[in-house]
Each structure stands twice: as structure tokens, then as C-alpha cells.
Write a structure and sequence with these properties.
By secondary structure, the protein is α+β, with helices and mostly antiparallel strands. It has one domain (about 35-185): tt1808, chain A (Alpha-Beta Complex), CATH 3.90.1570. The chain is about 25% helix and about 30% strand. It has helices spanning about 10-15, 35-55, 115-135, 180-185, and strands spanning about 20-25, 25-30, 60, 70, 80, 85, 100, 105-110, 135-140, 145-150, 155-160, 165-170, 180. The radius of gyration is 17 Å and the shape is globular. About 35% of the residues are buried.
């Protein structure tokens, strides 16, 4: 009998992948493209975060598909690629490379396939990974329900919910930043 050994992928391998992907347990996990509305929602959040970063001179906002390389977590994860993010920390010397470290604030916008029990379990597992890596706040953005659930590292089991007519925040990860939920889902 012969056995086949699968090569373990590295961050360098991930950097050569076209499209959105993350490195988890030595495997490159690709993501399907998202639809129109989830992309618009993520773009609105990024634009507001970017304006805030420029106005305050603190942190940097990232749009979709930026890679955050992290030391291997207990799940085996070694990277994140959130739909939008805010980062406070050292930028890579080579600006073409991934950011070394987790996002301070990560935004995950649900796509068409991100509903149901399996998707909920996957999203909960990813939030655990974010918090283990050091992320302070994660938003679970639901464009179908027009709702944002804010999870904080120090209060993971009790999300804050923002709905239409609310002002959503990412405290303490992005001090002073607020965004109207109505604007996100316009």
C-alpha cells in the first residue's frame, strides 16, 4: 500500500493565489465571489472607516481581499481576509505583502450562501479565531435582515445588535467612529 502525502501550504503559497482565500490548517481555502448587495454593503463600511482613519490620523482601513498573516491558531488558521477591516499596527515594509498580525476590527458581510446552521457554525468558529488572534471587535453584517451584530473580544457571548435607525460602532477597536445602519443598507 502506498500513501499520498499532501504538501502543507504556506503564507507564501497563499500570496500566489488569485482571488480571495485564507490559509487554514495548511490548506488554501478559496471563497466564492460575492453578490452585488453584500459587496456594496462592505464598500460603504470601508469608505466610512477610511474617512475616519484619514480624519483622525490613526489606523488604516482595508477593503475586501487584504491578507492578514497570523501565527498558527489552535484551529490551524494562519490568515484572515475580511470583507472590510481596520488595523492599528505596523504596516509591512514591503507594501505588496500581507499585513503581519490580526485586524483590530474585522467586518464579515454575509453572502447568499452564509445562512443556515452550517454557515452559523462556520461564522462562530471564525469569530473565535479572530479573538484568539487578537482582534478586538468583529461585525457580523446581515444584508437580508438589515442587521449588524457586534461581537467584542471581552464579551464574545453577548453581541450588541444594531438595526435600522441605529448608529453602529466598533468600540473599543475604532474609537469615536459611528456609521448609520440606514446608510449601510441604503
Amino acid at each position: 500500500m502506498s500513501s499520498v502525502t499532501r504538501a502543507v501550504a504556506t503564507i507564501e503559497d497563499l500570496g500566489r493565489v488569485e482571488g480571495k482565500a485564507e490559509l487554514i490548517a495548511g490548506r488554501i481555502v478559496r471563497f466564492m465571489p460575492t453578490g452585488f448587495f453584500p459587496s456594496r454593503v462592505a464598500s460603504r463600511i470601508f469608505r466610512s472607516l477610511d474617512d475616519h482613519a484619514e480624519e483622525t490620523g490613526r489606523g488604516v482601513a482595508m477593503g475586501d481581499n487584504v491578507g492578514f498573516a497570523i501565527p498558527e491558531l489552535s484551529s490551524g488558521r494562519e490568515s484572515f481576509s475580511p470583507d472590510a477591516a481596520y488595523y492599528i499596527g505596523p504596516l509591512p515594509g514591503n507594501r505588496m505583502r500581507f499585513i503581519q498580525g490580526p485586524p483590530t476590527f474585522a467586518v464579515e458581510v454575509r453572502s447568499e450562501g452564509d445562512y443556515g446552521p452550517r454557515a452559523e457554525a462556520e461564522m462562530a468558529a471564525k469569530r473565535i479565531d479572530y479573538f484568539e488572534a487578537g482582534t478586538l471587535v468583529v461585525w457580523d453584517v446581515d444584508p437580508v435582515a438589515n442587521r449588524i451584530r457586534k461581537f467584542q473580544r471581552d464579551q464574545q457571548a453577548v453581541p450588541v445588535e444594531f438595526n435600522r435607525s441605529d448608529q453602529a460602532d466598533a468600540e473599543p477597536a475604532v474609537p469615536g467612529w459611528r456609521l448609520a445602519v440606514d446608510r449601510i443598507f441604503a
